[in-house]
């Protein structure tokens, strides 16, 4: 069921569009409105000049006054030519201003949205309802620029219509009443049409998102092509795309039919009343109430009113339509951060003394009824390295998300040096945690930037950038790149960029975490994509790399988790075991079971080796 947009929400969109337009360039916005208003005032000049000419030439004194009119006619023609030249210049100037202003506005809108969206909590990107609003906002932010220009055009047309109505009112108020009545259905229809279009968009959005997923899958992701061919998925995904697009098109077609029907009804009403108004003008001329010049003048005004009113109504429809589609942006700007700082927060300790404690922590992801962690208790000493082990979905990564306050606990608390995590400022918390997630980012930038993004404030410390790459074993392939640290990674922005393997990208991400030089280090599957040699070298120097740091290591590789001082086993959101590798094997519990399952893959090799001996 679609949500109808209220008039109040549309007015908020109007206010936002004008506000952003003005803020993007105050001088250009003011100049645009001056040109718009002046252009609207010139509307009546042309028909009035024709009235003067015709009445002067065929007036009561006939053509005998030609000589006398000749001087007046020359002046009238000069005024007419001047108005046409001014209109032409204004149009060209406005076009140039529009181009420059559009760029400024696009920059302002993009900057505001980038700032807002990037500051939102993780929940907004993982909750479908919020994500729909984000998607709608991203798809429609271009309408801000479109909205403003439609609004200026609407202002110009409105001024023209008001001048025309004023002139016609001096002739006959009934003509004014008829042409206004003729326009009312169009105005009502304009608002109705925007509701129809929004309803179709709102219903179709999830369908369109699915269809676009398959489109992007098959056109913009080279890594997918291999499986499409080998699994013979091309025809299957094409059929899905076609089916989804048919559903999408069905909703759009329904909206188009409704609009067409309304167009026909409005056209009949508008035409009928416009003809009646024209008849009143002609009838007045036949009766001798008005001159032929006045007939020409009022007839031209009726024609102009028809054209201007039609454009004005069209702009009302477009404004209503765009204001409707801009409402998700208004909603987006109202989103507030769920992760809040207290007043006067504390700075993170310069050096941990008591360590980290998860005390009776329970956490539910949004809209989930199953806890990711339940009554979870864990203490991590300062400078201690712990490895977190468990099956997929057991809650391992959730621990890091809670420690970094990407989410807040549902109940219980996380303590840093016996003080609740929420009492520390977010900035100081982030500064003291270095992290690599398993879904690390591949930044399209040069190598040294990719690494220095770990702590952008220290980006100029090239020696430390190099040390970080050595620690992660990334230097092994960086030294073979043509421009070494100046090599651009990725080919999306630059054709000459270098595309790395997944393992090499992971080493870059690991370098970024080391460059942060934070006292808490969170490594989520840091060796999942690296080769066996790199993992072995990392294992050999792990203790040195993490010296003086409190380290949380998540991995499914038991060769990796043995690096840590202590191993913690999580099962279904609960801590079930903890201890050293040897202690946990002796217990014969969950850890021992998982270890033996992984070790069985190497059993045949060792049996063969022992037999050979």
Molecular structure report:
It is built from 22 helices and 10 strands. The strands form 2 sheets. It has a 6-stranded mixed sheet, with helices on both faces. The chain is of the alpha/beta class and 613 residues long. It has helices at 7-24, 26-41, 45-57, 66-119, 123-126, 128-140, 143-169, 173-219, 222-230, 234-286, 292-334, 396-403, 426-431, 447-452, 462-471, 475-478, 502-516, 532-540, 542-545, 558-561, 581-587, 590-612, and strands at residues 356-363, 373-380, 385-389, 411-416, 419-420, 433-436, 520-524, 550-554, 566-571, 574-579. The protein is elongated, with a radius of gyration of 36 Å. Helix content is 64%, strand content 9%.
What is the topology?
Elements: H1 7-24, H2 26-41, H3 45-57, H4 66-119, H5 123-126, H6 128-140, H7 143-169, H8 173-219, H9 222-230, H10 234-286, H11 292-334, E1 356-363, E2 373-380, E3 385-389, H12 396-403, E4 411-416, E5 419-420, H13 426-431, E6 433-436, H14 447-452, H15 462-471, H16 475-478, H17 502-516, E7 520-524, H18 532-540, H19 542-545, E8 550-554, H20 558-561, E9 566-571, E10 574-579, H21 581-587, H22 590-612
Parallel strand pairs: 3-8, 3-9, 6-7, 7-8
Antiparallel strand pairs: 1-2, 1-4, 4-5, 9-10
């Amino acid at each position: 069921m679609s949500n109808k947009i209220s008039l109040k929400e549309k007015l908020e969109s109007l206010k936002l569009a004008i506000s952003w337009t003005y803020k993007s360039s105050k001088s250009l916005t003011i100049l645009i409105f001056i040109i718009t208003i002046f252009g609207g005032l010139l509307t009546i000049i042309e028909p009035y000049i024709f009235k003067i000419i015709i009445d002067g030439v065929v007036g009561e004194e006939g053509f005998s006054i030609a000589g006398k009119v000749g001087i007046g006619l020359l002046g009238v023609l000069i005024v007419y030519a001047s108005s046409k030249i001014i209109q032409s210049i204004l149009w060209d100037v406005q076009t140039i201003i529009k181009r420059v202003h559009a760029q400024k506005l696009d920059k302002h809108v993009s900057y505001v949205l980038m700032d807002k969206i990037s500051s939102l909590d993780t929940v907004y990107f993982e909750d479908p309802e919020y994500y729909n609003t984000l998607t709608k906002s991203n798809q429609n932010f271009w309408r801000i620029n479109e909205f403003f220009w439609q609004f200026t055009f609407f202002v110009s047309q409105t001024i023209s219509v008001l001048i025309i109505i004023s002139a016609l009112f001096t002739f006959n108020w009934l003509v004014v009443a008829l042409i206004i009545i003729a326009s009312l259905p169009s105005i009502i229809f304009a608002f109705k049409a925007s509701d129809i279009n929004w309803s179709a968009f709102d219903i179709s959005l999830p369908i369109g998102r699915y269809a676009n997923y398959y489109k992007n899958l098959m056109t913009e992701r080279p890594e997918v092509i291999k499986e499409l061919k080998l699994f013979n998925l091309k025809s299957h995904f094409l059929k899905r795309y076609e089916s989804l697009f048919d559903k999408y098109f069905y909703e759009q077609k329904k909206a188009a039919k409704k609009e067409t029907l309304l167009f026909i009804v409005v056209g009949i009403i508008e035409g009928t009343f416009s003809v009646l108004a024209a008849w009143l003008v002609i009838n007045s001329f036949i009766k001798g109430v008005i001159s032929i010049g006045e007939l020409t003048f009022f007839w031209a005004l009726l024609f102009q009113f028809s054209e201007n009113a039609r454009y004005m109504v069209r702009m009302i429809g477009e404004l209503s339509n765009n204001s409707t589609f801009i409402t998700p942006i208004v909603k987006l700007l109202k989103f507030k951060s769920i992760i809040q700082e207290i007043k006067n927060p504390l700075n993170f300790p310069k050096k941990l003394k008591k360590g980290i404690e998860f005390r009776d922590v329970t956490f539910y992801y949004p809209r989930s009824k199953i806890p990711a962690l339940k009554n979870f208790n864990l203490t991590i000493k300062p400078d201690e390295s712990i490895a977190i082990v468990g099956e997929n979905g057991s809650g391992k990564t959730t621990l890091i998300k809670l420690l970094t306050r990407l989410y807040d606990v549902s109940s219980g608390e996380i303590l840093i040096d016996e003080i609740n995590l929420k009492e520390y400022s977010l900035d100081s918390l982030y500064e003291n945690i270095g992290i690599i997630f398993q879904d690390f980012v591949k930044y399209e930038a040069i190598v040294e930037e990719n690494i220095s993004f770990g702590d952008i404030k220290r980006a100029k410390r090239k020696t430390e950038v190099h040390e970080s790459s050595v620690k992660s074993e990334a230097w092994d392939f960086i030294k073979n790149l043509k421009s070494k640290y100046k090599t651009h990674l990725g080919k999306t922005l630059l054709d000459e960029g270098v595309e790395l393997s997944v393992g090499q990208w992971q080493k870059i991400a690991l370098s970024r975490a080391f460059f942060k030089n934070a006292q808490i280090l969170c490594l989520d599957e840091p060796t999942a994509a690296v080769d066996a040699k790199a993992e072995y070298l990392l294992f050999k120097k792990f203790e040195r790399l993490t010296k003086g740091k409190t380290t949380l290591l998540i991995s499914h590789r038991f060769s990796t988790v043995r690096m840590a001082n202590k191993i913690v086993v999580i099962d279904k959101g609960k801590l079930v075991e903890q201890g050293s590798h040897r202690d946990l094997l002796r217990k014969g519990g969950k850890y021992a079971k998982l270890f033996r399952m992984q070790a069985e893959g190497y059993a045949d090799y060792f049996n063969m080796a022992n037999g050979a001996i």
